Fold:
Amino acid sequence: MQSISGVIYLILTACLLPYAFAFIAKAAGGFKFKDNQNPREFLAKTTGLAARANAAQQNSFESLPLFLASVLMAEYMVMNQAMIMTLGIAYIVFRVLYGICYLANWATLRSIMWFFSMVCPILLLIFTIRLL
Structure:
């Protein structure tokens, strides 16, 4: 576990990514201080880029538990650190690309990026099971 700090950075990055999309959604939607009374209602009423950024935010939060569980289980089972980092970095890269595709309204490529981002934590769990 000599490279645990790398794993912590992966987890931190994955946890902050949805907030980056939330910031983009609010900025693109013209979020004002008064909108902070009910920000979810504000975001639900947005369209275009702001709505797509909000959807990317929501999906990023939805995929986060699987990623966190897979990384933590792999660490707990003392899986090869290089494998954890490789699949973790791949997950982050695919999630960023997924978000870019969402913002650009490239639906097919977005779905492909989503698929590959989900494969990463699933493979991590499968490789962890093989350690048993």
The chain has a mean pLDDT of 95. The chain is about 85% helix and 0% strand. The CA atoms of residues 55 and 102 lie 8 Å apart.
